[in-house]
Amino acid sequence: MTPIEIPPALLPADGRFCSGPGKVRVEALEALAATGATYMGTSHRFVTVQFKVAELRNGLAEMFALPDGYEVLLGNGGSTSFWDAASFGLIERRSHHLSYGEFSSKFATVTEAAPHLERPEVITAEPGTRPDVQSGTDVDAYCYPHNETSTGVIIDPTRPDDDGLVLVDATSAAGGVRFDPNQTDVYYFAPQKALASDGGLWLAACSPAAIDRIERLAASDRWCPATLDLKIALDNSRKDQTYNTPALATIFLAAEQVNWINDQGGLEWAAGRCDQSAATIYGWAEASDYAAPFVTDIGHRSPIVATIDLDERLSADDMVEQLRLNGILDTAGYRKLGRNQLRIALFPAIEPSDVEALTHCIDHLAERL
Question: Of 78, 88, 151, 168, most Cβ neighbours within 10 A?
């Protein structure tokens, strides 16, 4: 492909727009490097790392304004591992799932395959739309993502009218979208997206009801691998550590991002920043003659992951490649959707001015492609 040069004056200051792993702030990387020999390469069982874990757990509790009795748990493996752990330690008998994209469907697949659980209730919707929770059914856990990262669809967590636990996958939403923690029992996520860290870790804000469920199932005769045992994770989290060795850089960078958000004004500030970027990208797409938001319902559009369809006369693959040749990275649509589409992260670490610059760069290339 012959490169098309974008004038330097149009380029964003930082060209990282990946939906995961997301942009890590350079300041956080510099802070990690500045620890020298005092943090990386030290034991996660001793105070240097335990203090950092406590800083992260306390910072999340502050950022989310968690109600009394909620606890922040953590463990290794990311959100995919947490689905497996939840099938052992949070779903008692049968779960209810909303499936409207790649990641929401994967959790449903886990519980469908679990031999110790009854077949789940799965409510589906086409990508780009979302279904509604159907409360009052014969289930003990409601499972869905706050933000479906593959399609850019958002849903506001709401507690149903029964005693089922509400398990919300917040992997791309945590730290960038407002929510009421009282409406959730387990708000779980990995920190490599809106929390501007790296992968390999899961975190979960758990209600007293969720803690009770974890402890009760752990005391039952249900077998569970130790690495997926949420009671072991609970006990270790209360000691500000993990069952086995975590990625220390991931913990440090996540704590840096949470502290940065809290110092700027908390979740409301971060969400407002994402709203500004979302208004820019969707407003540009709606005004364009070759681009349009994939999610047609304005109330369902994600403020942190924007999916933009391109007219068929303009190849999204060519656009993504030309952007990459100019240092603007990872704007491709989700591969399994198979659409002529861009997917652009709007996480808090991404400057709203860079999102605006990106739209000018896309226009510049579109005229020439």
Answer: 151
pLDDT, tens digit, 9 for 90 and up, residues 316-327: 999 999 999 999
CATH architecture of 11-25+266-368: Alpha-Beta Complex (3.90)
Task: Look over the chain and give the mean of its residue pLDDT values, rounded to a whole number.
Answer: 96
C-alpha span between 301 and 293 (Å, rounded): 8
Q: Given phi > 0 = left and psi -120 to 50 = alpha, else beta, which region is 196? A: left
**Residue 264 and residue 270: Cα distance in Å, rounded?**
8
Q: Beginning with the edge strand found earlier in the chain, give each strand of the sheet holding 201-206 in spatial order.
A: 71-76, 201-206, 186-189, 165-169, 141-145, 95-99, 121-124
Sheet with 291-293, strands from edge to edge, namely 291-293, 305-310, 341-345
Q: What are phi and psi of 257, to 5 degrees?
A: -65, -45
- What ranges do the domains of the chain cover? 11-25+266-368, 28-264
Give 143-207 as a DSSP string.
Answer: EEESEETTTTEE------SSS-EEEEE-TTTTTTS---GGG-SEEEE-SSSTT---SSEEEEEE-
Residue with tokens 């913990």: 251
Q: Please choose, from the candidates 73, 69, 78, the residue with its C-alpha nearest in 3D space to the C-alpha of residue 205.
A: 73
pLDDT value of residue 120: 96
List the beta strands (DSSP E) in the chain: 71-76, 95-99, 121-124, 141-145, 147-148, 153-154, 165-169, 186-189, 201-206, 291-293, 305-310, 341-345
Q: Name the residue with tokens 């009671």.
A: 231
pLDDT range class, residue 148, cuts 50, 70, 90: very high
Q: Which long-range contacts link 50-58 to residues 24+ away (Cβ below 8 Å)?
A: 50/239, 50/240, 50/241, 51/240, 52/248, 52/251, 52/252, 52/255, 53/240, 53/241, 53/242, 53/251, 54/240, 55/255, 55/259, 56/203, 56/251, 56/254, 56/255, 56/258, 57/237, 57/240
CATH of domain 28-264: 3.40.640.10
